[in-house]
Structures are given as structure tokens and as C-alpha cells.
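re: ur question from the group chat, yeah i did fold both. here u go
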Amino acid sequence: MAFHTQQLHFVLLPLMAQGHMIPMVDIGRLLARRGVSVTIITTPLNAIRFEKVIGRDKQESGLKIQMIPVHFPGVEQGLPEGCENLDMLPSMNLGSKFFAAARKLQEPIEELLAVIKPQPSCIISDASFWWTNQIAQKFHIPRLVFHGICCFASLCIENLLKSEVFKNVKSDSERFAVPGLPNRIELTKPQLPGIVNASISGMKFMNDLMREAEMESYGMVVNSFEELENDYFQEFAKVKNKKVWCIGPVSMCNREPYDQAERGNRASIDDQSCLKWLGKWESNSVIYVCLGSLSRLSAAQMIELALGLEESQRPFIWAIRYKPDEFGKWLLEERFEERIKKRGILIHGWAPQVLILSQQAIGGFLTHCGWNSTLEGISCGVPLITWPMFGEQFLNEKMIVNVLRIGVSIGVEIPVKFGDEEKVGVLVKKNEIKAVIEGLMEQGEEAEERRERARKLGEMAKNAVEEEGSSYLNLTLLIQLVHFVLFPLMAPGHMIPMVDIGKLLAQCGIKITILTTAHNSKRFSKTIARATESGLQIQLLELHFPCTEAGLPDGCENLDMLPSLDMAGKFFVAISMIRQEVEQIIEKLTPKPNCLISDMGFPWTAQIAQKFHIPRIVFHGTCCFSLLCSHNIFASKILDTLNSDTEYFVVPGLPDRVEVTKAQVSGSMPNKNSNSAAMKDFRDQIREAERTSYGVVVNSFEELEPEYVKEYRKVKGEKVWCIGPVSLCNRDKLDMVERGKQNSIDEKSCLNWLDSQKPRCVVYASLGSLSRLDPSQLMELAFGLEESNRPFLWAFGGGGEKSTQLEKLISDNGFEERIKDRGLLIRGWAPQVLILSHQAVGGFLSHCGWNSTIEGISAGIPMVTWPQFAEQFCNEKLITEILKIGVSLGVSVPVKWGEEDKIGVLVKSEDVKKAVERLMDEGKEGEERRRRAKDLGEKANKAVDEGGSSYHSLTLLIQDVMRYSS
């Protein structure tokens, strides 16, 4: 198998608050260790806080992780200079200005993501950055939400918001149960998180935006582990109908002491001094106290806490991140630190919390119940004393005390809002603090059981992040994201647009695997290699094609390689023989595919999709007009009422009157024995497989055929995505040149010849890769082009006996010599999109294959139509009668593949001459036709641009598959 691998690139956008930034940086480091390229975007001062850790990961570990600072417009929004983190706000009254400044980051972040390499695959952003949904949609990548809380608290919030049970509560002291939980959890109204009760938070507008964005996001990342709260994890994922990945405890990615010491802000104590002090105490004897980076207790309450710790007679280490002036004065006057120096340490500022908690001396943790601190305590197997203050901390306390039963509540019932500390005053007295510490640290049966539960949870946490642990596996699943498998029919008209579709999806951050055979893989290897080099996640997987086993010549792996139509039946037999290998490959693919887009010619892929519980989306390779014609003709059984193959009838149920013959619409697959029982059975299989498939993807755009898109969606249950013209994904000249087979002409020679011609004067003629017209018929085409007296570029042939006969006729007639001043012949494959996009081309003589048709439309070029088989007569009707951008050569008899010699000459040189003259005529009719073609070309290009109909449809397709996967 030939693989092309691609670097995944995750962009992380944490809220500028320590409780959010620290775990997000840990998540980034975890992703980088799994081979993902990671970019963390934050503000300059916040970037400085983590530069040592990130720098060490890059330089010493070689991880692909970087932190990019963007200017924070705090001053512009009325914040003090340098105020770039919530813990730097002088007052919480400035909170709204802080979030207003954060909102202004959208534009610079978008500009950054537009140029950053490799192209981002995913955004993980804080829940409060609701606007990152718009960024993710712009770049066609999934956005994952990070809340920074656990599934228990998230489920409580979700159930409270949905039930609004708190609105019936009459007083602030009345307790009520949170509905829909596995355990009975009671709260009071003031203890609710601000996001639940807008009257509490005063931020209802932002809360609503956050929730709406969360509903639209792809999934959620949670810093927790499933074993800790499995019932709540399962229920939360169910009520959110989202992908939820528990990948924590993320703090455990910090295995080295220096990582633990430098996690977050710079520590206010030398880590070696801290460790030395802890090392002198017995196991489980020390109380660690830290009430978080945003907690604000009154000076009086701080004094009570200090005295309670002193009177407990237990060794303690207290990290004080907020110190009211009155409390600082008391410490000095009372010489508190001098009094407790034999068994206590005060850390004035940031403490290396994970380093401290991981020491065996720590036997208890007095915490504010912020989720980071809570989970860090759990990870270290330490029982907790709970002192919640605001946010979801009262919920976390319930989990610690009531659900996990590894903590003791200090008894706080009233939240202390940021800025209201002095108003609240003292809530917990020193004797209460002393009693709770003694209760936690005592040697009784209850305390021992609590310690044992905490110890077991600590072991579970460690196991969760080890290889094969639940969080390790969840991180693997998170990295996998969305994976589409594309399986095109081995024919140029099917493979080329499918590869384009793969590139379009990959440009949206989707991982793409294209299945094909070795020979066909070589045709697209350069294109795919260039796509991967540009940062796209796209690969080709090669299948063994059983040519000789099916009776085909060795190496005959594409319909355009068949020596005769007699081999077509064997070709489809060979296709049916690869089913088992396709199934085995899909089963082993990593990540597991979320969707299979397969050609209509592989009906058995519907069963494979069902086996792997993924949607199968059908690709026909034609437009909605032709698909609707085919559907209505089959559904109405109108063909059964006709007396002859040449009798014209009106296709039923169309917005326009369209007349065709039975011969023109019979047989959408090229087969000599098109009416055979085997062929009928095969068509029945195709129809049944399509009936059970999830939807249809169409290489068209809504503005081209709006009524037919609308009607076809009705008959297909709305799941029809028009995402074309897909050829327009080839903006680079090299992509245009190397699209499909290797060209039979040097592109420079071709372009030089076109450059020498006047604008819109050249007729480009190509009758498709599967056309096998009789050489005498092709000479009539040659003479007609010659007699039109227009410059022309004619692509034909490609090997075989008929090409040899044609070459002899051209040579014997002196044709090439006569037209050398105004004609260019391309023998074999031509860079068609490149040619059609050249300003010299003014007309396209085409067989009306849909790829050629849509490529001509995209270039804004009118056409001469010469349909031959399959749906080409329907496409001609669209071109000439509906869109009115083409001139028909008047062919009414289909030339079935393999029966060209029987038909002989249908089109004379005079017919070609007249049609070309009419097409290129500069009179009113010709000008009007050119105007319509030009207008459609402009609409085609707008459709695929950002905000266009096909751009939007591709987004909807991806979102639909994401929802299905969820």
C-alpha cells in the first residue's frame, strides 16, 4: 500500500485565566506528545508565563508545539495597562470590559490562521470564546469546547437550565434537588453557577451566546477521567448529543519536578526549599491550603483561617495568592510566621501546587473546589477539605463530599463573589477550621475509609492516562476527528472529480483516504503528494485489482484501458471481486472512518457502510437535471409504453418540457449487452443500494439548475449536497496541468500556442476519454474544424487500432500540414481545465460528459454539443434548451460504446462547420449565448468561494456527517 501521511495541527485558544490556561497548555503538550502539531494562541504576558515549559518541550523533547502571542486590546476597552489575565483585574467590575477585549481577538486570530502552516485541523477553545465557532466555520474545521469543569458539574448545569427548577424557589436559604441526576444533590439558589441564573451573573447575553455556540460545536473536551464519574459522563454526553472526550487528569502530563514547579505562574518559593521542608514530615501529616488564584477572602476571614491552622497543631503549607492590606499588617504585628515557623510555611503568591500535592507528606488539601485544584488533589490521592466560593465550586463540593466521599465540608453556605469579600466578612471561625482539619486527619474508621477511597481514585487517575487507559484512548479518539473514505469508479470521468472532492474535504480539515488500484494511484500520486505538502490530510490506498483473475489483460485497471467493449462485463466482475479487500482495509483504517463516499457503480459498498455503522454517500458523476430525468423516467415506467426506440416522449415531472427518445436514455452504463439480464440485475442493485444510502453528493451548483436541485432533493429526502464545480479547487496551474492522466502535450507549448491567439477566438474540441468514434467520423470532425476557418485545438485518440487508422488518414490527407497555422492537435490526454480557463478559448465542442460540461460552464464558455451515450443526451438538453448556452450538432442516435463501426458517420463536416460558425457568430444570438455562459461562469466561481452555495453545502455535508457520528 502507498501511504501519504499528514501532520495534524490543533489550535488551542484558552481563556486568559489561570484555571483555564494551565489545563489547556497541558492539553496542548499531551497532543504534541502524540505527534500533533500544536499552536496555543494567547496574549504576550500570558505567553511569558508558559515560555519555559513550552520552550523545553520544543528544544529538549522536539515536540511540534508553539505559543503565539496576539495583542490584547485591554487599554482600548478601558482596562489598566498590562491587564491580560482575570487574576490581574483590580476589580471584578471590570470583567465585562475584559471579555469585550477578548472579543476583539477574533479578527487577528483569523488573520493568523489564514497564513499559519500546516493548515489547522481543529480548534479547541474556551467555552467563553463563543465567537471561535465563526472562525472554525470560516476555515471548515471542527471546534471543540473546553469548559474547565467536570461532567458532574456540567450535567448539573445542563439539567438546571433545562428544568429551571430554581425559579420556583422562594428564598435564598431554601434547598432544592438538582433534577435528573444519579445521586440526590441539593443546593440553594445563591450557590448556583452564574451561567445558570443570569440574575446572579448579570451576563445573560454572553451566556446565551456561549450555549448557542456550544450546540453548534463539534464536541467537548473535559479534564476528567471516565472512572471518576462514569454515570455523569455517560448522561452528560447523552443530554448534549455531543462527542465528549474525557482526557484527564491533564496535570499528570507533568512528570518531571521542573515541569510541576514551573506550571502556570512563576512560583513564589524555591521548589527545592519547598521539597526539603516537606521531606522532613511523616507521610500524610501535612495540610496544604490554597484557595485559588481568583479567591478573595476578607482580612478578618484570612485571620480566622490563619488562627485555625495554627490551633490545629498540624504541619501546614499555605499558599496565599490574595493578601488584603489589613491581613498583611496583622501578619507582621502578630509575628504569625515567626510563631508557626517550626511547623508551617506561608507561600506569598504562586505555589507549585502539583509538586506539593504529589509529595507523600501531604495528607489533606483545604481547597476552594476549583476543578483544577480538585482534580489535582484527586490525582494525588489526597482527601480534601472543601471551602467553595463561587462559580461551579459548590457543585464540585457536592461531588467531593456526597458522590466520591473523599472530602469534608468546612460548612460554607454563602458564596463570596469577587469584590464582595469585605461585605461578607467572616463565614468560618477558627475553631470550625480546627475541627474540620482534625476530623480529616484523625485516625478513626471514617477518616481511614475516606483516605482509602482517595488513594484508590489517585491510582485510577494514574491508570487513566497510561497507555490503554481510558483518557489515553479518548485522546486517541479526539486526535482522529473526522475521516472520509472516497472510492471512485476506475474511469477518468469518475476518478478526477472524486479526487477533487477529496481535496475540497481535506481543505476543510477532514482526513481523506482515497481507495483505488495501483495503476490509477499513479495517475494522481503527484496531485496527492502536492496536497499533503501543502498541509492537507489526504492519502491514497492501493487495492489489488484482479485483472487476470477476471479474464482481463494484465494491468487493465481503468475503463479507458479496455481493448474492446467485450471486456466491460469482465471489468465489473473484477470490481466485484475487490469487495473483501475494501472491507478489510476500512476495518483497519485509523482513525475509524466517519463516512464513505462511493461511486454508484459500487452498490455493494452500501452493505460495507452498514457493517461499519457509517453513512454511505453516493456519487454519480452527473448533475441534478440528469439524475432527476433518470429517476422520473424509471419511477413513471414511461419507457414501457413506447413502441420504438426512436419515438420522442416528454420526461414526466420536470419544471421544463424536455423530449428524448428511449434510445437516448436507455443504459446509463456502457455495456454492449445493455438489455441483458445480468445488466438489469446490476442496475437493480445500484438502485437498491442508492435507496438505502444516506445521501447523494453532486458535482454541480444550485444557481446552475435551482429547480432541478430542489426537485431532486424532494425525491431523495433532502440529503443532496451540490458542492461543485469541484474542478475549481484546482487554482494552481500545476494542479490544472496534472489533473488526471499525464498530458500528451507539454503545457508550455500548449499555453504558448494559446497565448498567440486572440481572445475568445479558439474552438477547443474534445469528445472525452471513453469516446471510440470511427476514424472516418473523426475525419469529418477534422474537416469541419478546418472549414470553419476558426483557430482550433483538438484533443483526440490515445492509442489502439483506431488511433492508428486515424493517424494514417490525417497523414495521407495532409490535414496537419494544412492547418498548422491555426490548428493544434493533441494526441491523447489534454490539460482540459487549463485550456478552458485560457482567455483565447471562445467555444467548446464537447461530447456532453458531465465533467467536460461543468468545466466548460465554470470557464464561462458556450458549447457545441455532440452527445454519444449514457446521460450525455440529457446533459445536451440542459446545455441547449434549459441554460441556452450551446448549439446542438443534431445527433439523435446514441453511439454505444463498442458499436461505433456499425453506426459509421452521423455528423458530416458541413454540420460541424455550421455549428461552430453559429456558436462563434458575433451577431445578437451568439452574443446573448456568450453572455449567458459568462454569467454562469461567474456564478460557478462564486458558488465555491467563501459564502457561496457550494461552499455552504460542503459545510452542511460535513456537519451532517459529524452529527451522524455523534
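okk and heres the other one u asked abt
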Amino acid sequence: MSKPVTNPKIQNKNESSTSQSTTLQESHCNKAPQDEAAASTSRCNMDKAIVDGISQQCEKICINDERVQNVFQNSSANFVKKKNAKKKEKLKDLHIQMPSVNACSPPTVQTAPPAYSHDGGNSVHEYFNKHVTQLYANTSARYLENLIHHPQYHLMYSMRLREMFQFQNSQFFGSVPNTPSRPNTLGHYLHNAMQHPLLSKEYLNHVHTNQNQNAFHRAPEKASTNINIKKEINNSPKQNKKQKKDQNGADKVFDAYLCKEEVMEGLKNNSLIEGVLKINPKQFQNSYVSSMDRNEQDILIEGVKNRNRALEGDIVVVQFIESDDEDSEKHNNSDSSSKQRKGRVVFIKEKVHTRKCIGYLKLMPDKNRQRALFVPRDYRIPRLNIPFTSWPDNFYHESKSYENTLFLASIFDWFDVRFALGKLICNIGQSGDMQTETKAILAQMDLDITPFGEDVRHLFPRLDFIIPEEEIRSREDCRHLCIFSIDPINTRDIDDAVSCRKLANGNYEIGVHISDVSYFLHEGTLLDEKVSEKATTIYMVERAYHMLPDELCMLCSLFPGIDKLAFSVFWEITDDGIVLNHRFSRTVIHSCCQLAYDHAQAVLDEKEDAEKSFPEIYNGFTYKDISETIKVLGKISAIFRRRRFDNGALRIDQPKIAFHLSAANGLPDSYWIYESRESHQLIEEFMLLANMTVAKRIHDDHPKLAFLRCHPAPSNYLLKQLEKSLKPLGIDIDISSAGNLHRSLTDYLDQNSLDKGKAMVLSMLCTKPMTRAKYFCAASCVDDDFHHYALNVPLYTHFTSPIRRYADIMVHRLLSASLNYSKVPAWEVDKVRMVAANCNKQKYNAKRAGEMSTELYTLKYIEINSPVTAEAVVVDVKEKYIDVIITAMGLNRRIFFNNDFPGEFLCVKNDAGVRLSKMELTWNETDTLPSVKQVIEVFSLLQVELYKGDDMLKVETKLVRPK
């Protein structure tokens, strides 16, 4: 028998039902005989009345399934039975309705329970939020504690859970599986569900907070109402004190966004600024927004609250705020133009960031059963509160076993500055494992590497495809030309090949032949849709994840010894590199040789053993034919390159590291720095020429739909700051144009006059002000925005790599229409813009993934060979640390000076320039070594030691004591 209800609110609420039960009891007592049997019957009827009252409350929770009601009625009707008989009857009823445990034949339900429609939107959380929370919002915890021990409640609760999972397991949010493909288990879900806080005061607080948070976003002036509601729910003095502090400071809640009308008006009158948000990865509290005016300084966004839920890469709208700090006053007194502008985000125009992150799941310090803490690896992403319904199996009791487990999580809401609300998507695996770390990188960058399925297999031919004779007759037959490819030695995607033949007038006809992927990839098909979503091939250290199906890559690649379909561009060029004319054609080619860069370089260097290492030659050509062609192409490409930089082009090379992986375990055995040599430049120059030639043609023929690529000018403000900071170091750069910058850097980047480390630093410093190149639709930009800053050309596009870039396929389709090989694509301008935006996003994500993969294998190499002693060059000097580049690896590291340093350190700042700061070190005397002093400044060469850290991605870097 349950305890009586003592809460006055519940007593009033249930007054009618209780009164009805009392009347029923009185009528039965008056008619019954005054003997022991009658008394027993009376007690049973009283118990029945109480149960009926509870049942009425249960009905208000929408537990209205007929089978459950039948169980209630049966249990009430049999209430007068003996104890054992009643128990057996209940067990019999439950046994009849329990689902089968046979894993091979899961239970099915013909109709869904009334409270759960088959719409995919209901969940256990939503059910309780909608039906339970409102009913008990004002009840005491003591009553609820009594209620959950009632046997009728247990019966109802077990029946409801069974029906929910019998209807559709996948519709409800259960425990996160150990692997992405493993199905959720009912047992672990129920284990977690029994800890649900829905009947606790703590959860009611959370519900009211969430409900009123939505109201806060709509009307920020009602924030005080939210706090008052919280106070009514929780009467704890400590909690009230904390809430009062929140009310006064309001530093834990984000400001509401402006409405779209206010944003449009503010952008129009220049009171608001639109830009891309960039967060400092080493100091996430500070972020910056680049203004559209490249002459202006970036706007500083101080603190997470001012960032207002925006993340890296988001396009945001910023409102300026007044700066009253001391640093700003100093700047203002010295130079008003250098005053740091500050602002706060008032609107997110486009959420570019995926809101996904990789990290670790931990219990809260108070061992909370309802939420856990998710710590992202990327400090730019906030820590997440993860509800228990998203936890992995038995996480609460076995949390230590998940300490090194990487999870992929997503943010679904964020209203508290300190924590966002998130959910786990999948278990990536154990940190430190190379496959797991690679999966984590791909998941973090939101890159889809899912293989193509059988649903698209019928949309392209098999590898034994033979070009139909009709297709050959419709194309220009170039199978008689000496055509060959030059690529990295391990390449699989051969997009391009080159040819050269001497004309009767003494000039050369040079051709660039690009695989005709658009012949096989038809527009509008399911395959085309999937390829457009991937947009690019992803090149990781250990393998490539292709944009196209693997078989289609093989079919389109221009392998030697077999006929292939191509799009070709031909130029007539004089011996001194003057381009006289050009033409386009759809062709059929037959490559005679697949060369690596080393093969071509050996020919250009005229090495005696070049022929011995040459690969197999097809189509009746000889080594002499190919070597002579390479030399002609090398000579003309050198002219093109020199003329291109004389005309104002800019190139800043960044060090690229390559690895040799062990065949046994796939781990890095050795590494080297990738160098751009004459053979690389040969191919680069003719690919650039082809892209520029095609860009002009498609823009002339399709001025609205042309799919182009531009490179916006860099931040002029940052370039001026760089110029100013380098001048005291004896380095003068001219930032007036791309060409002048390149020419002024030439002497300093020449490794003969400046050591390799300093050249790396200078290249890195000059790269920071640069912007990303991007694809765009011609109709969406004015002519001034078409310019490519680094190449210093008015029009540019990508045409030469259709196997690995979807942008090139778009260009091929436009060029095909220009040459009357096909109809003009019926594209809307908005569609072209969307494709361009996706190509930009995917290209950047794939590039970042490749860089992260390279860093991952670099750190793994250090871990295997720890400690590694290497040479480093100083990039920057701060008060308590220095930034260096490991010259042999191109790796950026930070060295801190703290209590572990065996000596004293002092940063000496110079008012003449930030980069003139110096770090003065005094190494302590040891038993075998005397005390020594060391001065460190920008460009200083140091010896460092790299050690394995606690985490896979953490490598400790320490300064080596000078001799």
C-alpha cells in the first residue's frame, strides 16, 4: 500500500478523484455485513480505490494503450485473490506480453502505440518533456519518490518501455555504439534510462532553463523572468546566490542576435561589418574578423561571449564596441591609425563550421549521472555537456576504460558561454592508433569517404570498355603524336599528358591533353550528384580517397599503351616562347609513356644513365623521341616562367614533407622535404597556360555561367605591419603589388644568400596576410573581383584535373558547349553559386585534412624515434615562450620557459619593433658544464629536442643547451 499524499498542491489537484474514491468506499461499507470477510473486502476496495486514483494520474501521462489498460483492469478485478495466486496471475500476464528474446527474429508490432507516431521525431526525452514534466512541474520530490516505488507504476513503466522498443528501436535515442555500425542494445539503454532525471527537481530546473532560454533569444529583456522562475523551483540559498550573481553580471548567457532587417540596414549604413571569423588556435579567447576593405585592420573579438556562438570560418556580422583598455589608449596616443578595432558578433550569416569535433568524454567532477563533459581536441570549440542518453555502453561505471577513446560529437545548442550542448555521433576508436587518428581527421573535417555502392555501378562502363568507332570518328585522332605524362612516381590519377611536334614553319605545336571525364560522368545522374557532393579527392599520407569511383578513375586515367578520350588545347609557339594562336578539340589519344618527375629531371640534367631507368615505351616511339620532346618543353616552359614573374606574378613556397612508409606496419620509416625542380615547373607552366586559355573562352561564351577561380588581394594592413617589422631586421620588402613583392623577396628566398631556415620563416610570415583563392560564378561578381592576385592575370579557372576536382568537370561541360559538342547547360546562376561554394568548402577541408595527416605522421615519426634532435629557426619571441620552425620537417612548435627551465630567462622588448624582442637565457652551472648565456631573437638558429608527449598529438619540444 502506497504512502498517503502529503503535498498540499497534489492533494488539491487530485481532490475530485479522491472524493470519488471516498464515496465509493462509504457505499460499500454501508452494504457489507460486519464480519471479518466484509472487513477484508472493504480493505481491498479501499486499496482498489487508491490504485484507481493512481491509474487516473497515469492516464494523464498519455499511457492510454488498451493492452496496458487491460492489465490494470485485470489486476484490479483479481485484487481479492490470495497473495500467491495474484502474484502468479501477474507473472502470467507479463509473460504472455513479453517479447521474444530470439536475436534472429526481432519482435514486430503491427500498429504503433498511440503516444508514439511513426514520424521519426519522437524520442524518450520528448515524450517525458511533453507529458510528464508538465504534470509534475509543481509537485514535491517526496511525492514523486513515493510514486516511483508503486508496483502499478512499475508495471506501467515496463509495459511502455517494452512497447516503445518493440515498435521501433531505431526511432529512439539510445546508447552510442562502440562502433559506428553496431546497433543499439536495449539492455544498456534501459540501464541508462533508469537513471533519468525526469522525476527530479534538478531536471525540472533544466527544463525551465531550456524553455525560457528560447524565450530569451526572442526577447532578451525577459532574462530576469527566467531567473525568477529558477528561483521558484530551487530554494537552495547557495543556488539563489549563484543565480543572483548571474542576474547581475549576465556574463554566462549570450546576447540575442539582431533580426535580419536590422542586419541589412546596419550593413547598408556601414554601422555593421560582415566578414569571416578566424579564431586564434593557441588562444581561443581571441578571434578576428577580416573586413571586406583589405586596407583596414582585422576586428578583434575578445572573449567567447562577444563571439556569440560563432565558430571558425563562419560568415558573421560584427558591431563595433568601444575600447577602453590601456593598450588601446597607448595606441591611440601614438598613432590613431593603429588603434585596435574591437567588436562583437551580432548575427551569423552563414554557419560554415560543421559544429562537429573530435575529443574525449569524461565524467563531471561531481560524478553526475545525467550529463558528462566532452573535451574537444580543438580548443577553438567549446566544451560540451553530453546527456546520459548519448553515453556509450555502461560509461558511468566504466568511465576509465574510455579515457583514451576518441568520439565524434556535434553541437546542437549553445546558450551558456561556458558549455555548449552536444551529442555523441560515433565512437572513432583508441587515440594513438594511426587508422583511428586518420578517421578522426576525416570526421573532424566533415569529409565523406564512403565508397560508392552498387546503386551507381550501372552509370559508368567496366574497365574493359572499348571506345566506339563512331566516337573516334567524331573526334580528332591524335594517336600518332608523341604524347606522354609526367607525374609523381606513385600517382594513380593521370589527368594530363603533353605533346610537342615541330611544324613546317619551324614553330612548335604544343598540346595539353586532359582526360575527358565528362564523357563518362553524365550530368543529372545519381552518380553526378554524389561526385559533386564529394567535390575533390582527399590526399592523406597513407592513401587517397577518390572523388570518383575507383573503377572510373582507372577508366579515365591516361595510362600508356591504350586509347583514351581527352579534351585538348593546342598552341602554336615560337622557339623563343611567343604564343601565336591556340585551338581546342575533343580528341582520342594514345600515351606512349608514363614518366615520373625523376625520369624527366634526369633527361633535363642530361644524366648518362637516364635511359636505363626509363619506363616502358609504347606506340612505336623511342627514348630519343621522348627525351628531345622533354628538352623542347623544358626550354619553352623556362621562358614562360621567367616572363610570368617579370609580368608581376608571385609565388611563395611552403615546405612540404613526404614520408616513406614501412610495408610491414605502415608507420613512417623516413621523410624528406619536397622540392620543386625544373621537371615540376615544366608541367606547372603548361597547366597554367591551359587554365588561363580555357578561362577566357568560357567567359567569352558564357559570361553569366562561367565557372572561374580568383585570388583576392591580401590584407594590405597586415602587409604594412610585416614590412614595418622586417625593416629593422635588414629586410626590405615592396608590398605595392604581387610582382614587386616577389622581386623583393627573391634575394632573401635564394638559398645561396640566405640559409634555408630563414627562408622558411620569411615565407611563412609573407603567407599570413594572404587570402584563399576561391571558385565563383561569373554572374555573382563584378569584373574587378575576377583578378587572380598571385598569378596577376584577369581570368583563371581549373580545367586540368577533372579526375580529382569537380570544378574542372563544370568547366569541361561549359567548354564542350562552347565548341558545339553539346548543348549549353541549363543551369541557374544560383546552382552554379552553390556548386562553387561546395567546391570551396570541400577543397579547403581536404587541404586541411592532408596537412593534419602530414603532421600526424611527423609526430608519429618523432614518437618512434624519440628523442629527435633537430635544427630549428626562431619565428617569434614572446614574454614566456618562443615559436620555432623545425627546418628539416617544416613543423611549427612552441617552446615554453617555465619552472622546468634549468636557469633564468628574460624577455627584452624593443619599442622600435615587436620582432626586435629578444630572449636572454642564463643556463645554470652543472657538475660538468659551466654557466652559459644565450641570446635568442627572430631568425636565430637553435638546436632542439623533440620528445613523445602524453597524447599522440602532443610532442614536447625543449631547447638544447648550447655548447
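fwiw on the second one: The radius of gyration is 36 Å. The chain has 27 helices and 31 strands. idk if thats what u expected
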